[in-house]
Amino acid sequence: MHETAFQIFINTLLANNFVLAMFLGLCPFLGVSGKLNTAFPMGVATTFVMLVASLCAYGLNMLLSAFHLEFLRLIAYIVIIASTVQLVEMVMKKYSPALFRALGIYLPLITTNCAVLGVALFQTARDYDFVQSITFAIGGGLGFTLALVLMASVRERLQLSNVITLAEGTALSLMLAGILSLSFMGFAGLGG
Amino acid sequence: MSAKHPTTEQAPPATPTWAMIRTLGLVAGICGLVIVGSYQGTYDAVAANKRIAMERAVFKVVPAARSINAYYALEGGGVAKAEGEAPAGAVNFFAGYDETGKLVGVAAEGVAKGYADAVRIMFGYDPDCGCVRNIGVVAMRETPGIGDKIAKDKEFLANFEKLDAQLNAGMSALAHEIVTVKHGSKTDAWQVDAIAGATITSRAVGRAINDAAQALLPKLVPHLDKIKDKS
Amino acid sequence: MTPSTTAKWDEFMEGIWKQNPIFVMVLGMCPALAVTVSAVNAISMGIATTFVLTCSCLLVSLMRKMVPKEVRIATYIVIIATFVTAVDYFIQAISLALYDALGAFIQLIVVNCIILGRAEAHASRNPPLVAVSNALGMGAGFTIGLFALGSVREILGNGTLFGFSLFGEHFQPWVIMVLPPGGFFVLGAWLLLFAWFERRKQAIKEAGQHA
Question: What is the pTM of this model?
Protein backbone atom coordinates (compact mmCIF):
# COMPACT_ATOMS: atom_id res chain seq x y z
CA MET A 1 0.00 0.00 0.00
CA HIS A 2 1.54 3.29 -0.98
CA GLU A 3 0.31 6.63 0.26
CA THR A 4 1.95 9.85 -0.79
CA ALA A 5 3.05 12.22 1.94
CA PHE A 6 0.37 14.67 0.85
CA GLN A 7 -2.40 12.08 1.21
CA ILE A 8 -1.19 11.16 4.68
CA PHE A 9 -1.08 14.79 5.68
CA ILE A 10 -4.63 15.58 4.50
CA ASN A 11 -5.99 12.38 5.98
CA THR A 12 -4.53 12.80 9.43
CA LEU A 13 -5.32 16.51 9.48
CA LEU A 14 -8.98 16.22 8.49
CA ALA A 15 -10.56 12.91 7.53
CA ASN A 16 -8.92 10.81 10.23
CA ASN A 17 -8.45 13.61 12.72
CA PHE A 18 -6.73 12.20 15.80
CA VAL A 19 -9.21 13.62 18.25
CA LEU A 20 -12.50 13.63 16.40
CA ALA A 21 -12.23 10.40 14.42
CA MET A 22 -9.70 8.26 16.25
CA PHE A 23 -10.31 9.33 19.85
CA LEU A 24 -6.68 10.00 20.66
CA GLY A 25 -5.74 12.70 23.12
CA LEU A 26 -9.21 13.27 24.54
CA CYS A 27 -8.07 14.21 28.03
CA PRO A 28 -6.27 17.41 26.97
CA PHE A 29 -8.99 17.96 24.38
CA LEU A 30 -11.65 18.12 27.09
CA GLY A 31 -9.39 19.61 29.74
CA VAL A 32 -7.54 22.43 27.99
CA SER A 33 -10.14 23.53 25.46
CA GLY A 34 -11.84 26.04 27.75
CA LYS A 35 -9.92 29.07 26.52
CA LEU A 36 -8.50 29.90 23.12
CA ASN A 37 -5.28 31.38 24.49
CA THR A 38 -4.32 28.15 26.24
CA ALA A 39 -5.66 25.81 23.58
CA PHE A 40 -3.40 27.08 20.82
CA PRO A 41 -0.04 26.83 22.68
CA MET A 42 -1.05 23.39 23.92
CA GLY A 43 -1.68 22.29 20.35
CA VAL A 44 1.64 23.68 19.14
CA ALA A 45 3.55 22.05 22.01
CA THR A 46 1.88 18.71 21.29
CA THR A 47 2.70 18.95 17.58
CA PHE A 48 6.31 19.60 18.46
CA VAL A 49 6.54 16.67 20.86
CA MET A 50 4.79 14.41 18.35
CA LEU A 51 7.37 15.26 15.73
CA VAL A 52 10.25 14.53 18.09
CA ALA A 53 8.61 11.35 19.36
CA SER A 54 7.95 10.19 15.81
CA LEU A 55 11.61 10.68 14.86
CA CYS A 56 12.80 8.83 17.96
CA ALA A 57 10.32 6.02 17.46
CA TYR A 58 11.42 5.64 13.85
CA GLY A 59 15.06 5.24 14.81
CA LEU A 60 14.25 3.04 17.78
CA ASN A 61 12.09 0.75 15.70
CA MET A 62 14.91 0.22 13.19
CA LEU A 63 17.19 -0.68 16.06
CA LEU A 64 14.70 -3.07 17.68
CA SER A 65 13.85 -4.73 14.36
CA ALA A 66 17.54 -5.24 13.61
CA PHE A 67 17.94 -7.19 16.84
CA HIS A 68 14.53 -8.94 16.66
CA LEU A 69 13.40 -7.39 19.91
CA GLU A 70 9.92 -6.37 18.78
CA PHE A 71 8.37 -7.45 22.07
CA LEU A 72 10.18 -4.61 23.81
CA ARG A 73 8.73 -2.01 21.46
CA LEU A 74 5.98 -0.65 23.69
CA ILE A 75 8.15 -0.31 26.76
CA ALA A 76 10.93 1.29 24.71
CA TYR A 77 8.55 3.78 23.09
CA ILE A 78 6.98 4.94 26.31
CA VAL A 79 10.34 5.34 28.01
CA ILE A 80 11.82 7.24 25.09
CA ILE A 81 8.80 9.52 24.84
CA ALA A 82 8.93 10.34 28.54
CA SER A 83 12.65 11.04 28.43
CA THR A 84 12.56 13.10 25.21
CA VAL A 85 9.86 15.28 26.67
CA GLN A 86 12.10 15.96 29.66
CA LEU A 87 15.07 16.57 27.40
CA VAL A 88 13.11 18.95 25.18
CA GLU A 89 12.00 20.76 28.29
CA MET A 90 15.57 21.19 29.52
CA VAL A 91 16.96 22.26 26.14
CA MET A 92 14.15 24.72 25.67
CA LYS A 93 14.65 26.18 29.13
CA LYS A 94 18.34 26.76 28.43
CA TYR A 95 18.27 28.10 24.88
CA SER A 96 14.85 29.64 24.41
CA PRO A 97 13.34 30.85 27.67
CA ALA A 98 10.57 32.71 25.82
CA LEU A 99 9.39 29.55 24.11
CA PHE A 100 9.70 27.69 27.38
CA ARG A 101 7.49 30.21 29.14
CA ALA A 102 4.86 29.81 26.45
CA LEU A 103 4.87 26.03 26.18
CA GLY A 104 6.67 24.83 29.30
CA ILE A 105 3.70 24.12 31.55
CA TYR A 106 2.12 21.90 28.94
CA LEU A 107 5.13 19.68 28.34
CA PRO A 108 4.79 17.32 31.35
CA LEU A 109 1.10 16.85 30.50
CA ILE A 110 2.01 15.69 27.03
CA THR A 111 4.07 12.70 28.15
CA THR A 112 0.95 10.71 28.79
CA ASN A 113 -1.08 12.16 25.93
CA CYS A 114 -2.11 9.05 24.07
CA ALA A 115 -1.96 10.87 20.74
CA VAL A 116 1.82 10.99 21.06
CA LEU A 117 2.20 7.29 21.75
CA GLY A 118 -0.48 6.75 19.11
CA VAL A 119 1.67 8.42 16.44
CA ALA A 120 4.58 6.14 17.30
CA LEU A 121 2.45 2.98 17.36
CA PHE A 122 0.45 3.73 14.20
CA GLN A 123 3.47 4.66 12.11
CA THR A 124 5.05 1.34 13.10
CA ALA A 125 1.90 -0.65 12.46
CA ARG A 126 1.52 0.91 9.02
CA ASP A 127 5.19 0.52 8.04
CA TYR A 128 5.64 4.19 7.19
CA ASP A 129 9.01 5.23 5.85
CA PHE A 130 10.90 8.25 7.14
CA VAL A 131 9.12 10.97 5.15
CA GLN A 132 5.72 9.37 5.70
CA SER A 133 6.34 9.20 9.46
CA ILE A 134 7.24 12.87 9.64
CA THR A 135 4.20 13.99 7.66
CA PHE A 136 2.03 11.70 9.75
CA ALA A 137 3.32 13.31 12.94
CA ILE A 138 2.96 16.87 11.64
CA GLY A 139 -0.50 16.22 10.17
CA GLY A 140 -1.63 14.55 13.38
CA GLY A 141 -0.32 17.38 15.53
CA LEU A 142 -1.88 20.09 13.40
CA GLY A 143 -5.14 18.14 13.34
CA PHE A 144 -5.04 18.00 17.13
CA THR A 145 -4.39 21.75 17.25
CA LEU A 146 -7.24 22.40 14.83
CA ALA A 147 -9.70 20.35 16.88
CA LEU A 148 -8.55 22.01 20.10
CA VAL A 149 -8.84 25.54 18.66
CA LEU A 150 -12.28 24.89 17.15
CA MET A 151 -13.54 23.44 20.40
CA ALA A 152 -12.12 26.31 22.46
CA SER A 153 -13.71 28.91 20.17
CA VAL A 154 -17.11 27.28 20.50
CA ARG A 155 -16.79 26.94 24.25
CA GLU A 156 -15.78 30.58 24.65
CA ARG A 157 -18.93 31.68 22.89
CA LEU A 158 -20.96 29.21 24.88
CA GLN A 159 -20.04 30.92 28.11
CA LEU A 160 -22.07 33.92 27.00
CA SER A 161 -25.16 31.94 26.15
CA ASN A 162 -27.92 30.46 28.21
CA VAL A 163 -27.45 26.75 28.82
CA ILE A 164 -29.57 24.37 30.87
CA THR A 165 -27.64 24.09 34.11
CA LEU A 166 -27.99 20.32 34.08
CA ALA A 167 -25.93 20.05 30.89
CA GLU A 168 -23.12 22.39 31.90
CA GLY A 169 -19.62 20.96 31.96
CA THR A 170 -18.38 17.74 30.47
CA ALA A 171 -21.72 16.53 29.11
CA LEU A 172 -22.09 19.64 26.98
CA SER A 173 -18.47 19.47 25.81
CA LEU A 174 -19.01 15.89 24.71
CA MET A 175 -22.13 16.79 22.74
CA LEU A 176 -20.18 19.60 21.07
CA ALA A 177 -17.35 17.23 20.26
CA GLY A 178 -19.93 14.89 18.74
CA ILE A 179 -21.21 17.62 16.43
CA LEU A 180 -17.65 18.61 15.45
CA SER A 181 -16.84 14.98 14.78
CA LEU A 182 -19.97 14.67 12.67
CA SER A 183 -18.94 17.62 10.54
CA PHE A 184 -15.39 16.28 10.16
CA MET A 185 -16.87 13.10 8.68
CA GLY A 186 -17.66 15.21 5.65
CA PHE A 187 -13.94 15.36 4.85
CA ALA A 188 -13.79 11.61 4.31
CA GLY A 189 -12.20 10.56 1.07
CA LEU A 190 -10.50 13.91 0.58
CA GLY A 191 -7.03 12.37 0.71
CA GLY A 192 -7.88 9.72 -1.88
CA MET B 1 -3.97 11.75 28.30
CA SER B 2 -2.79 13.60 31.26
CA ALA B 3 -1.39 12.31 34.48
CA LYS B 4 -0.52 13.77 37.79
CA HIS B 5 3.04 14.76 37.31
CA PRO B 6 5.51 15.65 39.97
CA THR B 7 5.83 19.37 39.51
CA THR B 8 6.13 20.44 43.11
CA GLU B 9 8.84 18.84 45.14
CA GLN B 10 9.83 20.88 48.15
CA ALA B 11 13.46 20.26 49.08
CA PRO B 12 13.47 16.47 49.11
CA PRO B 13 16.05 14.72 51.27
CA ALA B 14 18.75 13.60 48.87
CA THR B 15 18.22 10.00 47.83
CA PRO B 16 21.43 8.04 47.46
CA THR B 17 22.16 7.24 43.84
CA TRP B 18 22.60 3.55 44.55
CA ALA B 19 19.02 3.36 45.86
CA MET B 20 17.65 4.71 42.59
CA ILE B 21 19.81 2.38 40.53
CA ARG B 22 18.91 -0.58 42.75
CA THR B 23 15.20 0.11 42.36
CA LEU B 24 15.30 0.70 38.63
CA GLY B 25 17.47 -2.39 38.18
CA LEU B 26 15.08 -4.52 40.22
CA VAL B 27 12.07 -3.21 38.31
CA ALA B 28 13.80 -3.80 35.00
CA GLY B 29 14.60 -7.36 36.08
CA ILE B 30 11.05 -8.18 37.17
CA CYS B 31 9.59 -6.58 34.04
CA GLY B 32 12.02 -8.39 31.79
CA LEU B 33 10.97 -11.70 33.33
CA VAL B 34 7.25 -10.91 32.92
CA ILE B 35 7.59 -9.83 29.29
CA VAL B 36 9.82 -12.67 28.18
CA GLY B 37 7.62 -15.14 30.08
CA SER B 38 4.41 -14.01 28.45
CA TYR B 39 6.07 -13.79 25.02
CA GLN B 40 7.42 -17.34 25.25
CA GLY B 41 4.25 -18.67 26.87
CA THR B 42 1.93 -17.35 24.18
CA TYR B 43 4.24 -17.74 21.18
CA ASP B 44 2.85 -21.08 19.97
CA ALA B 45 -0.78 -20.13 20.52
CA VAL B 46 -0.31 -16.83 18.64
CA ALA B 47 1.44 -18.53 15.73
CA ALA B 48 -1.29 -21.19 15.56
CA ASN B 49 -4.00 -18.52 15.64
CA LYS B 50 -2.37 -16.61 12.81
CA ARG B 51 -2.02 -19.76 10.71
CA ILE B 52 -5.66 -20.74 11.27
CA ALA B 53 -6.88 -17.26 10.35
CA MET B 54 -4.79 -17.26 7.17
CA GLU B 55 -5.94 -20.75 6.16
CA ARG B 56 -9.56 -19.87 6.75
CA ALA B 57 -9.18 -16.85 4.47
CA VAL B 58 -7.50 -18.93 1.74
CA PHE B 59 -10.12 -21.73 1.86
CA LYS B 60 -12.80 -19.07 1.48
CA VAL B 61 -11.41 -17.72 -1.79
CA VAL B 62 -10.32 -21.09 -3.19
CA PRO B 63 -13.32 -23.18 -2.13
CA ALA B 64 -12.26 -26.27 -4.11
CA ALA B 65 -8.99 -26.56 -2.18
CA ARG B 66 -8.51 -29.24 0.45
CA SER B 67 -4.93 -28.41 1.39
CA ILE B 68 -2.71 -25.34 1.13
CA ASN B 69 0.98 -24.70 0.56
CA ALA B 70 2.59 -21.31 1.09
CA TYR B 71 5.09 -20.12 -1.52
CA TYR B 72 7.19 -17.11 -2.47
CA ALA B 73 7.18 -15.86 -6.05
CA LEU B 74 10.78 -14.75 -6.48
CA GLU B 75 11.97 -11.43 -7.82
CA GLY B 76 13.60 -12.77 -10.99
CA GLY B 77 10.76 -15.25 -11.65
CA GLY B 78 10.28 -18.73 -10.25
CA VAL B 79 8.83 -19.96 -6.99
CA ALA B 80 10.18 -21.27 -3.71
CA LYS B 81 8.54 -22.80 -0.65
CA ALA B 82 7.82 -20.19 1.98
CA GLU B 83 10.27 -21.03 4.72
CA GLY B 84 12.19 -18.67 6.93
CA GLU B 85 12.66 -15.06 5.88
CA ALA B 86 11.30 -13.89 2.56
CA PRO B 87 14.05 -13.06 0.03
CA ALA B 88 14.11 -9.44 -1.15
CA GLY B 89 11.41 -8.60 -3.69
CA ALA B 90 9.58 -11.90 -3.22
CA VAL B 91 5.78 -11.99 -3.11
CA ASN B 92 3.99 -14.28 -0.71
CA PHE B 93 1.13 -16.43 -2.07
CA PHE B 94 -0.76 -19.62 -1.33
CA ALA B 95 -1.50 -22.53 -3.63
CA GLY B 96 -4.65 -24.58 -3.00
CA TYR B 97 -4.79 -28.30 -3.97
CA ASP B 98 -7.72 -30.71 -4.18
CA GLU B 99 -7.82 -34.29 -2.79
CA THR B 100 -5.71 -35.68 -5.63
CA GLY B 101 -3.03 -33.02 -5.12
CA LYS B 102 -3.88 -31.05 -8.25
CA LEU B 103 -3.60 -27.25 -8.23
CA VAL B 104 -7.08 -25.69 -8.15
CA GLY B 105 -6.30 -22.09 -7.38
CA VAL B 106 -3.89 -19.51 -6.05
CA ALA B 107 -4.61 -17.00 -3.30
CA ALA B 108 -2.79 -13.80 -2.42
CA GLU B 109 -3.35 -10.78 -0.24
CA GLY B 110 -3.61 -7.19 -1.39
CA VAL B 111 -3.92 -4.04 0.65
CA ALA B 112 -5.06 -0.50 -0.14
CA LYS B 113 -6.14 2.57 1.73
CA GLY B 114 -9.89 2.68 2.21
CA TYR B 115 -12.19 5.19 3.83
CA ALA B 116 -10.92 4.80 7.39
CA ASP B 117 -7.83 2.66 7.32
CA ALA B 118 -6.15 -0.04 5.27
CA VAL B 119 -8.43 -2.60 3.62
CA ARG B 120 -6.80 -6.02 3.35
CA ILE B 121 -8.25 -8.29 0.71
CA MET B 122 -7.52 -11.96 0.06
CA PHE B 123 -8.34 -12.94 -3.52
CA GLY B 124 -8.41 -16.25 -5.34
CA TYR B 125 -6.81 -16.53 -8.79
CA ASP B 126 -7.91 -19.27 -11.15
CA PRO B 127 -4.95 -20.25 -13.39
CA ASP B 128 -7.21 -22.01 -15.92
CA CYS B 129 -9.17 -18.93 -16.95
CA GLY B 130 -6.61 -16.35 -15.86
CA CYS B 131 -9.12 -14.58 -13.70
CA VAL B 132 -9.84 -13.54 -10.15
CA ARG B 133 -12.57 -15.80 -8.76
CA ASN B 134 -13.42 -14.91 -5.17
CA ILE B 135 -12.47 -12.30 -2.63
CA GLY B 136 -12.54 -12.22 1.14
CA VAL B 137 -11.95 -9.32 3.48
CA VAL B 138 -9.06 -10.03 5.86
CA ALA B 139 -9.23 -6.78 7.80
CA MET B 140 -10.96 -3.43 7.49
CA ARG B 141 -12.29 -0.59 9.59
CA GLU B 142 -14.80 0.71 7.09
CA THR B 143 -18.07 2.38 8.02
CA PRO B 144 -20.63 -0.18 9.20
CA GLY B 145 -23.62 -0.30 6.90
CA ILE B 146 -21.82 1.57 4.08
CA GLY B 147 -18.20 0.60 3.39
CA ASP B 148 -18.41 -2.78 5.05
CA LYS B 149 -20.86 -3.90 2.36
CA ILE B 150 -17.84 -5.04 0.34
CA ALA B 151 -17.83 -8.17 2.46
CA LYS B 152 -21.47 -9.10 1.95
CA ASP B 153 -23.11 -7.18 -0.91
CA LYS B 154 -24.13 -9.85 -3.47
CA GLU B 155 -24.12 -7.49 -6.43
CA PHE B 156 -20.60 -6.31 -5.59
CA LEU B 157 -19.27 -9.80 -4.98
CA ALA B 158 -20.65 -10.84 -8.39
CA ASN B 159 -17.81 -8.74 -9.85
CA PHE B 160 -15.43 -11.39 -8.66
CA GLU B 161 -17.09 -14.42 -10.20
CA LYS B 162 -14.84 -14.03 -13.21
CA LEU B 163 -12.76 -10.86 -13.12
CA ASP B 164 -10.34 -10.77 -16.04
CA ALA B 165 -6.68 -10.82 -14.90
CA GLN B 166 -4.91 -12.07 -18.08
CA LEU B 167 -1.31 -11.08 -18.62
CA ASN B 168 -0.20 -9.16 -21.71
CA ALA B 169 1.74 -10.87 -24.51
CA GLY B 170 5.14 -10.11 -22.94
CA MET B 171 3.95 -11.43 -19.55
CA SER B 172 5.31 -8.29 -17.89
CA ALA B 173 2.04 -6.91 -16.51
CA LEU B 174 -1.72 -7.40 -16.65
CA ALA B 175 -3.19 -6.93 -20.11
CA HIS B 176 -5.79 -4.62 -18.61
CA GLU B 177 -5.46 -2.90 -15.29
CA ILE B 178 -8.16 -3.92 -12.84
CA VAL B 179 -10.07 -0.73 -12.11
CA THR B 180 -13.13 0.15 -10.12
CA VAL B 181 -15.73 2.12 -12.08
CA LYS B 182 -18.75 4.06 -10.92
CA HIS B 183 -21.82 2.08 -9.98
CA GLY B 184 -23.65 0.82 -13.05
CA SER B 185 -20.98 1.73 -15.62
CA LYS B 186 -19.11 -1.58 -15.85
CA THR B 187 -18.51 -2.53 -19.50
CA ASP B 188 -15.50 -4.83 -19.51
CA ALA B 189 -14.52 -8.01 -17.72
CA TRP B 190 -11.59 -6.35 -15.94
CA GLN B 191 -13.70 -3.64 -14.36
CA VAL B 192 -15.17 -3.69 -10.87
CA ASP B 193 -18.62 -2.19 -10.48
CA ALA B 194 -18.57 -0.01 -7.35
CA ILE B 195 -21.23 -0.12 -4.65
CA ALA B 196 -23.42 2.97 -4.87
CA GLY B 197 -22.54 5.24 -1.95
CA ALA B 198 -19.38 3.34 -1.06
CA THR B 199 -17.15 4.28 -3.97
CA ILE B 200 -14.06 4.90 -1.86
CA THR B 201 -14.10 1.48 -0.28
CA SER B 202 -14.94 -0.21 -3.60
CA ARG B 203 -12.04 1.60 -5.23
CA ALA B 204 -9.74 0.39 -2.45
CA VAL B 205 -10.76 -3.20 -3.21
CA GLY B 206 -10.01 -2.76 -6.92
CA ARG B 207 -6.67 -1.13 -6.19
CA ALA B 208 -5.68 -3.77 -3.63
CA ILE B 209 -6.34 -6.56 -6.13
CA ASN B 210 -4.70 -4.72 -9.01
CA ASP B 211 -1.53 -3.89 -7.08
CA ALA B 212 -1.17 -7.41 -5.71
CA ALA B 213 -1.93 -9.04 -9.07
CA GLN B 214 0.53 -6.78 -10.91
CA ALA B 215 3.21 -7.70 -8.38
CA LEU B 216 2.49 -11.42 -8.25
CA LEU B 217 1.18 -12.70 -11.58
CA PRO B 218 4.04 -11.69 -13.94
CA LYS B 219 6.43 -13.53 -11.60
CA LEU B 220 4.17 -16.53 -11.06
CA VAL B 221 2.26 -17.34 -14.25
CA PRO B 222 5.28 -18.32 -16.44
CA HIS B 223 6.29 -20.79 -13.71
CA LEU B 224 2.87 -22.19 -12.83
CA ASP B 225 3.82 -25.72 -13.88
CA LYS B 226 6.33 -25.88 -11.02
CA ILE B 227 3.54 -25.85 -8.46
CA LYS B 228 1.00 -27.77 -10.54
CA ASP B 229 1.17 -30.81 -8.29
CA LYS B 230 1.43 -30.88 -4.55
CA SER B 231 4.97 -31.69 -3.55
CA MET C 1 -17.79 -9.22 58.25
CA THR C 2 -14.70 -8.26 60.18
CA PRO C 3 -13.75 -4.59 60.12
CA SER C 4 -10.81 -5.22 57.80
CA THR C 5 -12.88 -7.04 55.18
CA THR C 6 -15.50 -4.29 55.35
CA ALA C 7 -12.78 -1.74 54.71
CA LYS C 8 -11.63 -3.70 51.67
CA TRP C 9 -15.20 -4.01 50.47
CA ASP C 10 -15.53 -0.22 50.77
CA GLU C 11 -12.35 0.21 48.76
CA PHE C 12 -13.82 -2.06 46.10
CA MET C 13 -17.17 -0.27 45.95
CA GLU C 14 -15.47 3.12 45.77
CA GLY C 15 -14.43 2.57 42.16
CA ILE C 16 -17.73 1.09 41.08
CA TRP C 17 -19.97 3.86 42.27
CA LYS C 18 -18.66 6.88 44.14
CA GLN C 19 -15.54 7.36 42.03
CA ASN C 20 -16.54 5.58 38.85
CA PRO C 21 -13.67 6.35 36.46
CA ILE C 22 -15.92 6.99 33.47
CA PHE C 23 -19.07 8.61 34.80
CA VAL C 24 -17.69 10.49 37.79
CA MET C 25 -14.02 11.15 37.16
CA VAL C 26 -14.30 11.18 33.34
CA LEU C 27 -10.90 9.55 32.90
CA GLY C 28 -9.61 7.09 30.35
CA MET C 29 -11.79 8.55 27.64
CA CYS C 30 -9.73 7.44 24.65
CA PRO C 31 -10.34 3.69 24.93
CA ALA C 32 -13.78 4.33 26.39
CA LEU C 33 -14.96 5.96 23.18
CA ALA C 34 -12.78 4.25 20.60
CA VAL C 35 -13.45 0.58 21.23
CA THR C 36 -17.04 0.66 22.48
CA VAL C 37 -18.69 -0.04 19.14
CA SER C 38 -19.90 -3.37 20.50
CA ALA C 39 -20.57 -4.86 23.91
CA VAL C 40 -18.00 -7.63 23.43
CA ASN C 41 -15.23 -5.19 22.57
CA ALA C 42 -16.19 -3.02 25.54
CA ILE C 43 -16.05 -5.88 28.04
CA SER C 44 -12.78 -7.24 26.63
CA MET C 45 -11.19 -3.83 26.88
CA GLY C 46 -12.50 -3.47 30.42
CA ILE C 47 -11.08 -6.82 31.48
CA ALA C 48 -7.71 -6.10 29.87
CA THR C 49 -7.52 -2.74 31.64
CA THR C 50 -8.57 -4.28 34.95
CA PHE C 51 -5.83 -6.89 34.63
CA VAL C 52 -3.15 -4.29 33.94
CA LEU C 53 -4.46 -2.05 36.71
CA THR C 54 -4.55 -4.80 39.32
CA CYS C 55 -1.15 -6.29 38.50
CA SER C 56 0.52 -2.88 38.34
CA CYS C 57 -1.04 -1.74 41.61
CA LEU C 58 0.01 -4.96 43.33
CA LEU C 59 3.61 -4.59 42.20
CA VAL C 60 3.71 -0.88 42.97
CA SER C 61 2.26 -1.53 46.41
CA LEU C 62 4.75 -4.33 47.15
CA MET C 63 7.63 -2.06 46.16
CA ARG C 64 6.24 1.07 47.76
CA LYS C 65 8.90 1.27 50.49
CA MET C 66 11.86 0.99 48.19
CA VAL C 67 11.02 3.32 45.33
CA PRO C 68 12.74 6.69 45.77
CA LYS C 69 10.42 9.48 44.75
CA GLU C 70 12.78 10.87 42.10
CA VAL C 71 12.35 7.79 39.96
CA ARG C 72 8.82 6.80 40.88
CA ILE C 73 7.07 7.91 37.69
CA ALA C 74 9.68 6.13 35.58
CA THR C 75 9.24 2.99 37.69
CA TYR C 76 5.46 3.06 37.44
CA ILE C 77 5.49 3.61 33.69
CA VAL C 78 7.88 0.70 33.14
CA ILE C 79 5.74 -1.57 35.34
CA ILE C 80 2.54 -0.58 33.53
CA ALA C 81 4.11 -0.97 30.08
CA THR C 82 5.28 -4.45 31.06
CA PHE C 83 1.83 -5.68 31.96
CA VAL C 84 0.32 -4.06 28.89
CA THR C 85 2.81 -5.91 26.70
CA ALA C 86 1.83 -9.14 28.47
CA VAL C 87 -1.89 -8.45 27.91
CA ASP C 88 -1.17 -7.68 24.27
CA TYR C 89 0.27 -11.20 23.82
CA PHE C 90 -2.51 -12.85 25.85
CA ILE C 91 -5.19 -11.30 23.65
CA GLN C 92 -3.37 -12.37 20.49
CA ALA C 93 -3.24 -15.89 21.87
CA ILE C 94 -6.93 -15.91 22.81
CA SER C 95 -8.48 -14.44 19.67
CA LEU C 96 -6.99 -12.68 16.67
CA ALA C 97 -10.38 -11.28 15.70
CA LEU C 98 -10.64 -9.54 19.06
CA TYR C 99 -7.04 -8.33 18.71
CA ASP C 100 -7.85 -6.76 15.34
CA ALA C 101 -11.03 -5.17 16.69
CA LEU C 102 -9.28 -3.51 19.63
CA GLY C 103 -6.28 -2.57 17.48
CA ALA C 104 -3.73 -0.15 18.83
CA PHE C 105 -5.91 0.61 21.83
CA ILE C 106 -4.59 -2.43 23.69
CA GLN C 107 -1.12 -0.90 23.66
CA LEU C 108 -2.55 2.51 24.43
CA ILE C 109 -3.70 1.16 27.83
CA VAL C 110 -0.23 2.31 28.91
CA VAL C 111 -1.26 5.94 28.78
CA ASN C 112 -4.68 5.39 30.34
CA CYS C 113 -4.55 8.00 33.10
CA ILE C 114 -6.61 5.82 35.46
CA ILE C 115 -3.73 3.39 35.85
CA LEU C 116 -0.92 5.85 36.45
CA GLY C 117 -3.27 7.88 38.63
CA ARG C 118 -4.15 4.89 40.82
CA ALA C 119 -0.56 3.71 41.07
CA GLU C 120 0.57 7.17 42.13
CA ALA C 121 -2.32 8.23 44.33
CA HIS C 122 -3.35 4.97 45.96
CA ALA C 123 -1.15 1.92 45.46
CA SER C 124 2.04 3.70 46.45
CA ARG C 125 0.60 4.49 49.88
CA ASN C 126 -1.34 1.37 50.80
CA PRO C 127 -0.56 -2.27 51.64
CA PRO C 128 -1.02 -4.80 48.81
CA LEU C 129 -4.46 -6.18 49.74
CA VAL C 130 -6.05 -2.74 50.06
CA ALA C 131 -4.40 -1.58 46.85
CA VAL C 132 -5.62 -4.65 44.98
CA SER C 133 -9.21 -4.28 46.23
CA ASN C 134 -9.22 -0.65 45.17
CA ALA C 135 -7.72 -1.52 41.77
CA LEU C 136 -10.24 -4.31 41.22
CA GLY C 137 -13.07 -1.93 42.08
CA MET C 138 -11.76 0.74 39.72
CA GLY C 139 -11.34 -1.85 36.99
CA ALA C 140 -14.87 -3.15 37.55
CA GLY C 141 -16.21 0.39 37.49
CA PHE C 142 -14.36 1.07 34.27
CA THR C 143 -15.66 -2.17 32.72
CA ILE C 144 -19.24 -1.31 33.74
CA GLY C 145 -18.83 2.13 32.22
CA LEU C 146 -17.49 0.70 28.96
CA PHE C 147 -20.29 -1.85 28.87
CA ALA C 148 -22.89 0.89 29.37
CA LEU C 149 -21.44 2.73 26.37
CA GLY C 150 -20.82 -0.33 24.22
CA SER C 151 -24.23 -1.95 24.70
CA VAL C 152 -26.14 1.26 23.93
CA ARG C 153 -24.06 1.91 20.84
CA GLU C 154 -24.39 -1.66 19.61
CA ILE C 155 -28.16 -1.80 20.18
CA LEU C 156 -28.86 1.53 18.48
CA GLY C 157 -26.22 1.39 15.79
CA ASN C 158 -26.43 -2.23 14.81
CA GLY C 159 -29.65 -3.61 16.30
CA THR C 160 -27.74 -6.34 18.11
CA LEU C 161 -26.40 -7.11 21.57
CA PHE C 162 -23.41 -9.48 21.90
CA GLY C 163 -23.98 -10.18 18.20
CA PHE C 164 -27.57 -11.42 18.64
CA SER C 165 -30.18 -9.59 16.62
CA LEU C 166 -32.76 -7.88 18.84
CA PHE C 167 -35.27 -6.31 16.51
CA GLY C 168 -35.55 -8.63 13.54
CA GLU C 169 -34.37 -7.79 10.05
CA HIS C 170 -36.63 -4.81 9.42
CA PHE C 171 -34.71 -2.72 11.93
CA GLN C 172 -33.02 0.22 10.24
CA PRO C 173 -29.80 0.68 12.23
CA TRP C 174 -28.91 4.13 13.50
CA VAL C 175 -25.44 3.84 11.96
CA ILE C 176 -24.10 7.10 13.34
CA MET C 177 -24.07 5.51 16.82
CA VAL C 178 -21.24 3.14 15.93
CA LEU C 179 -19.32 5.90 14.16
CA PRO C 180 -17.07 8.31 16.08
CA PRO C 181 -19.73 11.02 16.68
CA GLY C 182 -21.98 8.41 18.29
CA GLY C 183 -19.36 7.76 20.94
CA PHE C 184 -19.39 11.39 22.01
CA PHE C 185 -23.20 11.57 21.95
CA VAL C 186 -23.79 8.40 23.96
CA LEU C 187 -21.25 9.32 26.64
CA GLY C 188 -22.71 12.82 26.81
CA ALA C 189 -26.18 11.35 27.24
CA TRP C 190 -25.02 9.04 30.05
CA LEU C 191 -23.39 11.96 31.85
CA LEU C 192 -26.62 13.94 31.54
CA LEU C 193 -28.56 11.04 32.99
CA PHE C 194 -26.19 10.80 35.94
CA ALA C 195 -26.34 14.54 36.54
CA TRP C 196 -30.13 14.33 36.54
CA PHE C 197 -30.09 11.48 39.07
CA GLU C 198 -27.72 13.39 41.28
CA ARG C 199 -29.95 16.46 41.19
CA ARG C 200 -33.09 14.48 41.96
CA LYS C 201 -31.38 12.81 44.90
CA GLN C 202 -30.39 16.23 46.19
CA ALA C 203 -33.91 17.59 45.73
CA ILE C 204 -35.44 14.68 47.62
CA LYS C 205 -32.93 15.13 50.44
CA GLU C 206 -33.71 18.84 50.73
CA ALA C 207 -37.44 18.18 50.66
CA GLY C 208 -36.92 15.67 53.48
CA GLN C 209 -35.06 18.26 55.55
CA HIS C 210 -37.80 20.83 55.10
CA ALA C 211 -40.49 18.37 56.18
Answer: 0.84
